[in-house]
Amino acid sequence: MKDYSTYSFWLETAGELLTPRPSFMRSTEVDVAILGGGYSGLWTAYYLLRANPRLRVAMVEKEIVGFGASGRNGGWCSSKFPVTPGMLSHRFGREAARSLMLAMCATVDEVARVCEEKGIDAHFRKGGMLSLARGAHQLPMLRAAFDSYEALGLKDHARLLSAEEAAERVRVTNVHGALFTPHNASLHPGRLVRGLARAVERRGGVIYEQTEVTSFEGGSTPRLLTPAGELRAKVALVLAGEAYLTRLKKLHRALMPVYSLIALTEPLSGEQWSQIGWQNGESISSNRYTVDYLTKTADGRILFGSRGTPYLFGSKITDEQDRHAPTHARIQRAVIEWFPMLAGIKFTHFWGGPVGMPRDWMPTASFDPETRIATARGYTGQGVSTTNLAGRVLADLIMGKNSELVTLPLAQRRSPNWEREPLRWLAMRYAQKAFLRIDEAAENGRSRPLDAPLAEFLGKR
Ligand SMILES: Cc1cc2nc3c(=O)[nH]c(=O)nc-3n(C[C@H](O)[C@H](O)[C@H](O)COP(=O)(O)OP(=O)(O)OC[C@H]3O[C@@H](n4cnc5c(N)ncnc54)[C@H](O)[C@@H]3O)c2cc1C
For ligand 1, is residue 262 a contact (CB within 6 Å)? Predict the structure, then answer.
């Protein structure tokens, strides 16, 4: 059997044994059948059972609850949505964009509320978020982000900071300014996902682990197919497998699996923290195309995440991609570049996992009453809070509730499929390399690569 604690620091320190729950053994019927034991599936189950405790809800998970991104992420529970406020406005109109941004802010508090109510000790800490301009070239991105909040009438949700003001919060090299957004928390992802599963079980939900769904069918009695039989659903089937959904033939091109990787330091000393500051525990990022995100853990470590594992032909997902040595080495160098006072610090954990990227970057929470198939997916690395919102949207859609939630832009939509191979592989590999070249050129004072506009067009969101 796999040692699931080796998949992330969060699973290792989830505070409970990771012994798998019983597998699915024989065909049966429930009201709602859910594929996937991550946040999406669990939040959906949680809100369905809260609305109607008599519903029979069962979930099928290939490994254990939290095996996917939900047990491995960077711990940002953020109002940040995968599509920028400016692009949301452009695609869906100002009012819809504004409603979604406000719903995301409220979602951060909703996650805290459930943790409190259900006694989930997920180390929730609402310290806000600091987006840093590391290098003068990143300042225009901060300005543009601030302007898009302002255009939505959400000026109070973002504040531009000078380099000096940013340094009062955290001392990082080469910072030229920052954007502070208050609606952001950090948390322990493993404790959240495992605690949520227990909360769902206490409400009567049943979770089967170590059972792979090999296919699914919609219709008057939709069903999940497994080697041990079928789980039929009278009301709805929920597909909540995020990046791993691409392994199912029918959803192979619905998402692109993109890897996010993390390196974690040992706990810092009091002296090191007093040099760095970061007393409020903000979630921190810069504005690199290759993404970097930092979290201060409850036990005083620095978690640093970035992207870089090359996309594999055919959207392959393998354990080996979790540990891409060149990317983990680059992350370790970055920690010292950001915080030179940490030279010599030990890194205790390295891991990673796939996020699900839709063709238009826009997450989906939809339910088709004809096929009775529901799905929540496509968070592109911004799913810790967004899954909660998606779970509430799905619960309302499945229950036929005409709430404000079901009018949000992520509800009842569908992203286009990705291109077929080899086009997908060619475009993705090109974009991955181009983004790294753009970042490195800017950081080393070289002129922008000539193909930067093309790469930016491909990554537009
Ligand atoms: C390294 C990393 C860092 C991240 N950092 C952040 C962050 O800081 N903030 C943020 O907001 N987001 C972050 N994300 C993204 C976030 O974690 C995800 O968006 C979110 O967890 C998605 O939840 P989910 O339930 O939809 O999918 P998952 O957590 O991936 O769960 C899907 C589950 O479905 C199961 N499954 C899939 N297919 C099948 C099948 N056929 N049969 C049975 N079971 C199946 C899988 O085993 C898995 O457990 C990060 C992701 C990664 C990988």
Answer: yes
What whole-number distance in Å separates Cα of residue 22 and Cα of residue 90?
A: 47
CA-only gyration radius of the chain, Å: 21
Looking from the CA of residue 40, the nearest atom of ligand 1 is 25
What is the bridge-based pairing of β-strands 206-208 and 129-134?
Answer: unpaired
Q: Distances in Å between the alpha carbon of 249 and those of 92, 137, 253, 254?
A: 31, 43, 9, 10
Structure-block tokens of residue 384: 């810790």
Q: Is the dihedral of CA 360, 362, 365, 369 positive or negative?
A: negative
The residue whose CA has the least distance to atom 52 of ligand 1 is: 73
Assign 295 to helix, strand or coil.
strand
**Residues of the chain with pLDDT > 90: what percent?**
90
DSSP annotation of 447: P
C-beta of 390 in contact with ligand 1 (< 6 A) = no
pLDDT digits (tens, 9 = 90+) for 350-359: 999 999 999 9
Instruction: Out of 24, 62, 351, give the residue to mutate to test ligand 1, the one with the largest number of ligand atoms within 8 Å of its CB.
Output: 62
235-259: string of b/e by CB count within 10 Å (b at 16+)?
bbbbbbbbbbbbbbeebbbbbbbbb
Residue 422 preceded by cis peptide, ω within 30: yes
Q: Is 230 in the pocket of ligand 1 (CB under 6 A)?
A: no
The answer to whether 158 touches 263, Cβ cutoff 8 Å, is: no
How far apart CA 305 and CA 331 sit, in angstroms, is: 7
pTM of the predicted model as reported, rounded to 2 decimal places? 0.97
Distances (CA, A) of 442 to 138, 167, 175, 338: 9, 22, 14, 16
Q: How many CB atoms lie within 10 A of CB 43?
A: 27
Q: How far apart are CA 296 and CA 272, in angstroms?
A: 13
- For residues 249 and 257, is the Cβ–Cβ distance under 8 A? no
Q: What are the C-alpha distances in Å from 350 to residues 8, 262, 277?
A: 7, 6, 24
The tokens of 366 are what? 């939809």
**Region of poorest pLDDT, from 89-103, 137-151, 422-436:** 422-436
Confidence of residue 458 (pLDDT cuts 50, 70, 90): confident
User: Considering only CA atoms, which residue is closest to atom 40 of ligand 1?
Assistant: 213
pLDDT digits (tens, 9 = 90+) for 168-204: 999 999 999 999 999 999 999 999 999 999 999 999 9
- CA–CA separation, 331 and 336 (whole Å): 9
* DSSP tally for the chain: helices H, then strands E: 12, 18
